[in-house]
Amino acid sequence: MSFFLWREKKLSKKESISLKRSMTTRHIMMMALGGAIGAGLFKGSSVAVDMAGPAVLIAYLIGGMILLFIMQGLADMTIKNKQARTFHDLIEPAIGSYPAYFLDWIYWKMWVLNIAAEAIVSAMFLQYWFPQYPIWALALIISIAVTIVNLLSVKIFAETEYWLAFLKISVIIIFIMAGLFLMFVTTSNHQAVGLSNLTRHGGFFPNGIDGLVIAMLVVIYSYGGTELIGVTLGETKNPEKVIPKATRGTLTRIVAFYLLPFFIIVSLIPWNQVNNATESPFVTVFDLLGIPYAADIMNGVILLALVSSMNSGLYASSRVIYTQAIDGSIAKIFSKLSIKKVPTYAILLCTSSLYIGVLISIIAGENTFNYLMGSLGYTVLFIWLIIASAHFKSCMQQNSIEKRKFPITTLIAIISLLLILAGVIITTKIIITFITLIIYLAITAVYIIKRK
């Protein structure tokens, strides 16, 4: 720590509070994909299928449409506010300081819990090769590696994340092609099943509408991370042009990379067997191809994909802390940058959640992921609601009636999210709802105290 402090003292005051605009469209697009395609897809896929059966496809389609409307609103607000550095600067002018403050902190909470959850899941995949080591020890090794990458320059971080996300997406494309082949072509060790598994085991809605509603919490959690684009404003070249472009390109890819893989999974594997398997559905499908070491290769790729998502999460959470320090909401030390223009202390603060997750995993083991995922689903719901509400209000505040356009898609998103929230509250375990409520009340209490 003293080494970083020594380096920071060499910087001028002006330099210490200026992030470097090093990221381009390809970096932003891949970061959004990297943040969204992680544990929610590779590990959460089993949980979602177990809840809804083949109807999980409907859940992800609904979630994808809502995501589309939310991201359109976010891009629109970015164009209108060219000086924005992060979510806070987009939300506060539209709906006030409390929603902006609340969003900042639940967003930070979401990412620090998410990277802790994904550290545990990564350790579970790493344990495939090293079964003799406990999950907590493997999670600790991964956490240290991710911390080091984030302490390097923003450009190195962005390039690392770009290629990790590129690898992840390439494998998903191969998975889709291989899955379609296995669905309709019989091989020496596999009988083509076509679409029969979609209706064979209790129908398309085996758990009814309730199962679909319960799965929505996992779906929203899985898509969470795409809004990471809103945190990169301060380090993006020409954000008013880059963000809308990256948003359009990212949305279609995310929906495709979720809907198609889930279509493959529930078509090839009976839905009631997916969550009972000892390995990821992705590993199972590659195993069916009969390729030597296919399971090892896929396991390794998924591991890198999860590290990629952790990378994005640590970036996002540290930048929220950085902007809070710049605004004077927390200690100024977290606004200090290293000579590489990286908020060192903010990163180190956020990495503490990784090591807390390691400690929790000593007690809870692999169940840690399931405990964290429920609360994260609630958080993404509220983040999307606040972004949508801010966009709706900003559209209605246009001075010129001619320029004012009624944001019908944003209104649809708000109504849909409120309905999903009501359904989730009714169907989710009370302990998850209670813990989430306590966290939100604590954030609100701190805001009220600071205001007084």
TrEMBL record:
GO cellular component annotations of the record:
plasma membrane
Superkingdom, natural source: Bacteria
Task: Read off the Pfam families from this record.
Answer: AA_permease (PF00324)
Top-down, what is the taxonomic lineage of the species of origin? Bacteria, Bacillati, Bacillota, Bacilli, Bacillales
Membrane topology, as annotated? Multi-pass membrane protein
What name appears for this protein in its UniProt entry?
Amino acid permease
Tell me a GO biological process for this protein: amino acid transport
Q: Which UniProt keywords apply?
A: Amino-acid transport, Cell membrane, Membrane, Transmembrane, Transmembrane helix, Transport
Supply the InterPro entries for this chain.
AA-permease/SLC12A_dom
Question: Does the keyword field hold Transmembrane?
Answer: yes
